[in-house]
Write a sequence for this structure.
């Protein structure tokens, strides 16, 4: 298959490698390769002859400007895909994204999904839980020299490599015309993840439960954990930390 991957960050770079290893012809498209989703520049060339497009781009901000970012970029990508005869549009989203209205970025990602569902092309949405790789940056937002303050938000984090495996399977399969949830094997509260992470790093700071601290303070209940039909990835957080 000929597949265009839009985005060359943590997921996009790994996905390009994985799909190429599986024998597919892959085009990696990003600003650095001359593709600008906001203006549409370079999209027609990047999508020429593509069977599948996988969109793993991210908004440069997480505030309300992200809503306009996804509105514009998804529209441009769907239009270019239709011109190119793309048969399958795949997007990476977030488990529970439509359950956290308080966060601008989550509302923006929900809009992305809605635009894809209403578009002209068969589609698949892969909703992932929070990546292992983002746990330490998340902790840094609410930490100082003595403590890390975190809410007790239930999460079921996943390794980015496992996200890539799922995306590659979906991209090379029949369009779902729906949503696949993917998650790691174990559920923790965010403060538990914090303690595990600090211990693995030899960091002697304490973790203080603070339900008003950081991004996940806006999350209520266990909406960011998957339901029973989700695909469970094999990699455990503790093993990844110690790897």
């Amino acid at each position: 298959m000929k597949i265009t991957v839009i985005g060359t960050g943590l997921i996009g770079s790994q996905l390009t490698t994985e799909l190429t290893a599986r024998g597919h012809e892959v085009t990696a498209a990003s600003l650095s390769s001359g593709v600008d989703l906001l203006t549409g520049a370079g999209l027609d060339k990047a999508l020429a002859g593509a069977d599948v497009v996988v969109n793993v781009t991210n908004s440069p901000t997480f505030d309300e400007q992200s809503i306009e970012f996804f509105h514009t970029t998804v529209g441009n990508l769907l239009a270019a895909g239709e011109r190119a005869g793309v048969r399958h549009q795949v997007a990476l989203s977030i488990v529970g994204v439509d359950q956290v209205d308080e966060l601008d970025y989550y509302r923006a990602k929900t809009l992305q999904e809605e635009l894809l569902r209403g578009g002209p092309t068969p589609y698949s949405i892969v909703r992932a839980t929070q990546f292992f790789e983002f746990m330490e940056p998340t902790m840094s937002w609410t930490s100082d020299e003595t403590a890390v303050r975190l809410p007790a938000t239930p999460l079921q984090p996943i390794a980015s490599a496992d996200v890539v495996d799922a995306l590659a399977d979906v991209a090379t399969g029949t369009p779902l015309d729906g949503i696949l949830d993917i998650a790691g094997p174990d559920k923790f509260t965010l403060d538990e993840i914090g303690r595990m992470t600090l211990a693995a790093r030899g960091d002697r700071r304490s973790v203080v439960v603070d339900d008003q601290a950081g991004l996940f303070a806006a999350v209520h209940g266990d909406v960011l954990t998957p339901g029973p039909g989700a695909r469970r990835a094999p990699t455990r957080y503790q093993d990844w930390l110690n790897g």
Remarks:
- Residues 65-84 form the longest helix (20 residues).
